[in-house]
Amino acid sequence: MVVLKYALPVLAAASAVFAADCGSGDTIKIENQSDLEKYSSCKTIKGDLKIEKQAEGELSLNGVQQIDGSFTSEGAGNVTSISAPELSSIKETFHLNGLTSLSSLKMGSLTKVGSIEFTALPQLQSLGFEKGVTDAGDVHIANTGLTSLDGISLKQVGQLDITDNRDMKKANVENLKNATGLMNFAGNSESLKISLPNLAGAKNMTFRNVSDASFPSLEKLSGQLGFWGLKFETFSAPNLTETGDLVFKGNEKLSNISMPNLKTINGGFQITRNDELKSLDFPKLEQVSGAIDFSGKFDEVSLGALENVRGGFNMQSTGNFSCGEFRKLRSDKVIRGSYKCEGGKSNPTSADGKSGASGTSNGKNSESSEGASVMNVANVPAMGMAAVFGALLQYAL
User: Fold this and answer.
1) What is the pLDDT of residues 69-117, one digit of tens each?
2) Region entry Disordered: which residue ranges (predicted)?
3) What gap in Å lies between CA 295 and CA 314, rounded to an integer?
4) What was the pLDDT predicted at 361?
């Protein structure tokens, strides 16, 4: 009993020291490999782990399985490698920015992260998440050397923002079923192919300058679905029934859009400057709560199931198509806002007065005279199309 009387306090003190060595909720600052080795006996680090700017070379976090806070590094330009072979979970943010020499990231056990924020990592070509990250809130990857998203194996995500990764040619997130925030792909390799085979639901999705985008299971979006500068000829969403604003703009090779089950657009519907599109057919489209704005070089438009367009209607093309069907929809009050329809027009324009087809001009309002200022919504995807279609909603009921 005497031994226990003195032994227990000693053990308690030793435990306290051990806990303190594994963090106390504050930020642990790492300047070199020796600093990391102090935590090799810890399974869990309590608090944040931060690699400081002066760190350099190869850094390895051994033994640690979980970080209860964030794992961050800002501007550590001389760090070439980061590894954490046993690390399976980062509770908060995994943030790496400005590690311009980082060429190796090896975290083979990592599966769960609060969020991923990787920016300005030009030498990093692969993620090194061998098991695959299956649980993360948001993922932002910008200006890296990554060639693919291999290692991102999410079933659900908030925001998925993949921009300015000039070498990225493949983005397969095969397990992803739902995205609750903005999904944005822009400024990556023009040969980028995106595959989301199991994605059934999303909020906002915008795609710019990609060579292929496939999401055959997509059924419903609560926000915008937009495509700018696509490099492929055919787009298909066979199971999509409902979306917010729907935009196809400036897709120079696009010759076919297939959405055979689309019934409802909770916003505006714009198709403009897609010169290879000659026929537009949306056989089950019934409801458009915003405006319809089609301009280009098409010869045929079929909207046979249309029952209600609460906004305006603008349809202009160089093609020789008849407006009779749409004139009747206007007289029957299916189209409730302002109305304009012209076929065989040499200078077709979109609802905002901008040129609706390449090689045409509309004086001071044409895109050719306004340079890169195409449409505000193309530059601010999260804002939707409200501003674009607002003028055509003035007569909506």
Assistant:
1) 999 999 999 999 999 999 999 999 999 999 999 999 999 999 999 999 9
2) 340-370
3) 8
4) 52
> Phi, psi (5° rounding) for residue 382?
-70, -15
Query: What stretches of the chain show up as alpha helix (H) in DSSP?
Result: 2-21, 33-37, 324-331, 367-370, 376-379, 386-390
Annotate 101-111 with b (16+ C-beta within 10 A) or e (fewer): bbeebbbbebb
Q: Please list, in sequence order, all residues whose beta carbon lies within 8 angstroms of the beta carbon of residue 385, skipping any fewer than 6 positions away.
A: 224, 245, 247, 267, 268, 270, 290, 377
Answer whether residue 228 shows pLDDT above 50.
Answer: yes
Per domain, the residue ranges of the chain are 19-204, 219-397
Burial of 287 (0-12, 13-18, 19+ CB in 10 A): middle
Q: List, in sequence order, every residue forming a beta bridge with 280; answer none if it has no partner.
A: 301
Neighbours of 345 (CB within 10 A): 17
**pLDDT tens for each residue of 181-196:** 999 999 999 999 999 9
CA gap 228, 380 in Å, rounded: 12
Query: Could you tell me which of 197, 206, 233, 120 has the C-alpha nearest to residue 166?
Result: 120
Per-residue pLDDT at 24: 86
What is the pLDDT confidence band of residue 321, given thresholds at 50, 70 and 90? confident
CA 129 to chain centre: 20
Amino acid 62 reads N
Burial (0-12, 13-18, 19+ Cβ within 10 Å), 208: buried
pTM for the full model? 0.85
Cβ-Cβ contacts under 8 Å for 64 (sequence gap 6 or more): 39, 40, 42, 43, 44, 45, 84, 86, 87
**Average pLDDT for the chain:** 88
The total of other beta-carbon atoms located within 10 Å of residue 75's CB is 15
Which is nearest to 76 in space by CA: 113, 111, 33, 46?
A: 33
**What is the 3-class SS of 16-82, one letter each residue?**
HHHHHHCCCCCEEEECCHHHHHCCCCCCEECCEEEECCCCEEEEECCCCCEECCCEEEECCCEEEEE
Instruction: Pull the structure tokens for residue 228.
Output: 């700018």
Residue 268 CB coordination number (10 Å): 30
